[in-house]
Amino acid sequence: MSQKFDPEFVERIVQEVIRRLVERGLVLEQTTNGCELALSDKVVTLAKVEGRLAGVKRLVVGGRSIVTPAVKDELKDKSIELVRRQ
User: Fold this and answer.
1) Comparing C-alpha atoms, which of 65, 63, 34, 32 is closest to residue 49?
2) Most buried among 14, 18, 36, 86, using CB within 10 Å?
3) Does position 27 have pLDDT exceeding 70, yes or no?
4) Domain-by-domain residue ranges, the chain?
5) Alpha helix (H) ranges present in 2-55?
6) Would the pTM of this model clear 0.70, i.e. be above it?
């Protein structure tokens, strides 16, 4: 029994999976300006970003997320932009 796969359908599925992983902060999203780390946590602490900022240019968090001062200092020290999404 052979099945035919629609390459466009498979690509849509892959893109949706990647989008969801990025949303949850489980993978880095490659952008034209470098890498972006997206986190969906309500509170973003140093423990949440530790070991995950290498090569990151932007940290994207939810509009209502609390970002601790220590994280803000770490981002500043590493020249990483903090972006809030609504």
Assistant:
1) 65
2) 36
3) no
4) 7-85
5) 7-23, 46-49
6) no
